[in-house]
Amino acid sequence: MKNETFSFDVKIKDFYLRQLACYSFGKSLKLTKTKKDDFVNISMSLPNWYNGRQKINCTAPSINTKKAYYWYSNIWLVKKQNNKWYKE
Asked: Which of 37, 42, 52, 72 is the most buried (most CB within 10 A)?
């Protein structure tokens, strides 16, 4: 996968937008945050992933509940280089 982007919308409620962060392979991803009313669109360029299962994790600490986090994950399955899927 090359030059792919991913985005999702989230309602701003119990977290500070500036503290929302997304990661892949333990590295922070650069986010574009576009606010509209009570929602924000989060978009990012995905890394150049290897074949197999890949994912991103996004987290933001809760404002009202100490030591609690909001968590969002998404998983992709990337085909082999020969464009075939892995066997189950």
From this structure: 42
Question: Rounded to 5 degrees, what are φ and ψ at 66?
Answer: -65, 145
Query: Taking residues 55-70, what's their average pLDDT?
Result: 95
d(CA 6, CA 53): 16
Write down how long the chain is. 88
Residue 78: predicted pLDDT: 84
pLDDT the model gives residue 1: 55
pTM for this entry: 0.82
